């Protein structure tokens, strides 16, 4: 499993970003390290601290590094030269907060470094869709038509939260342990289809209360996948599967 590192000028900012991501996506089993601030109150970045964070986060599958501004990037680049042994490291230009949430969702699902970086880069697409901006063009993966012998259902979004932020993260987590391939489409707006295992793409659906989401699934546990999505979008308490709203 890949590791994640957050490099920021502010310790408080980095800690808050990690707290938000792990609250949205608990129990992912992903190592997240922070290299932020010169101390708890002093703004700045330290390449030596970044190198230490990369080494601590690396379990052998590589490390994705997210940075905030200017010298945070320079410190991360310098840190690569300070590492005592070779590490596979990807410096990612995604926004720290949204990128961290998307990367954590991907890494928790077993994504490799390249896939997690791709998810982090697409992390703003959901926000862009919400405010009416043009999102990054969907990849061919999202546009793949569902294969035959699929299970299909139209699910009404009755939960007041719609399918943004926390519920979208919960949906991705709820499908992770199932042997099923799931795609979702916002039938009310025409957005999608998108794969259910991509947090950044699920967010682009912009599914709000009153919208209808068409869910298609294949695989041995396709029906279970649809029932979990139905429970989430209806706001039902789904107990230990991580489908509850706070």
Describe the structure.
There is one protein chain. The protein is of the alpha/beta class. It is built from 9 helices and 8 strands. The radius of gyration is 19 Å and the shape is elongated.
Sum up the structure in keywords.
246 residues, alpha/beta, Rossmann fold, Histidine-containing Protein, Chain: A, four-stranded parallel sheet, four-stranded antiparallel sheet, 9 helices, 17% strand, elongated, disordered C terminus
Please give the structural blueprint.
Blueprint: E1 3-8, H1 11-24, E2 32-36, H2 47-57, E3 63-67, H3 71-82, E4 89-92, H4 96-108, H5 113-121, H6 125-130, E5 151-156, H7 165-175, E6 181-186, E7 194-195, H8 199-202, E8 212-218, H9 222-233
Parallel strand pairs: 1-2, 1-3, 3-4
Antiparallel strand pairs: 5-8, 6-7, 6-8
Helix pairs in contact: 1-4, 2-3, 4-5, 7-9
What is this entry, summarized?
The protein is α/β, with parallel strands linked by helices.
| CATH C-level class of the largest domain | Alpha Beta
Counted up, domains total 2
**Taking strands numbered 1, 2, ... along the chain, how are they ordered across the largest sheet?**
2-1-3-4
First-residue to last-residue Cα separation:
28 Å
| CATH homologous group name of the largest domain | Phosphotransferase system, mannose-type IIA component
Order of helices and strands, N to C? EHEHEHEHHHEHEEHEH
The total count of helices amounts to 9
Overall CATH architecture of the largest domain: 3-Layer(aba) Sandwich
Number of beta-strand segments: 8
Overall morphology? elongated
Characterize the main sheet.
4 strands, parallel
Q: What structural class is derived from the secondary structure elements?
A: alpha/beta
- What's the CATH topology name of the largest domain? Rossmann fold
How much of the sequence is in beta strands? 15-25%
Helix content: 25-40%
Mean pLDDT across all amino acids: 84
Point out poorly predicted stretches.
Answer: 138-148, 237-246
């Amino acid at each position: 499993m890949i590791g994640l590192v957050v490099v920021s000028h502010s310790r408080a900012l980095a800690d808050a970003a990690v707290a938000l991501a792990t609250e949205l996506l608990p129990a992912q089993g992903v190592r997240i390290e922070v290299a932020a601030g010169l101390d708890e109150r002093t703004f700045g970045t330290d390449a030596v601290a970044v190198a230490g964070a990369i080494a601590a986060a690396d379990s052998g599958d590589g490390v994705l590094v997210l940075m905030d501004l200017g010298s945070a990037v320079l410190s991360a680049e310098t840190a690569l030269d300070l590492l005592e042994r070779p590490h596979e490291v990807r410096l990612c230009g995604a926004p720290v907060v949204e990128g961290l949430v998307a990367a954590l969702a991907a890494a928790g699902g077993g994504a490799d470094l390249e896939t997690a970086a791709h998810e982090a880069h697409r992390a703003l697409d959901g926000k862009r869709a919400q405010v009416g901006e043009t999102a990054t063009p969907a990849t061919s993966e999202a546009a793949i038509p569902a294969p035959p012998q699929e299970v299909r259902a139209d699910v009404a979004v009755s939960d007041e939260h719609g399918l943004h932020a926390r519920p979208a993260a919960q949906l991705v987590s709820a499908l992770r342990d199932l042997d099923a391939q799931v795609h979702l489409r916002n039938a009310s707006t025409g957005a999608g289809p998108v794969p259910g295992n991509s947090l950044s793409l699920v967010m682009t659906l912009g599914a709000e209360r009153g919208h209808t989401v068409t869910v298609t699934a294949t695989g041995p546990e396709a029906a279970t996948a649809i029932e979990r999505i139905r429970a989430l979008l209806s706001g039902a308490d789904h107990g230990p599967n991580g489908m509850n709203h706070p």
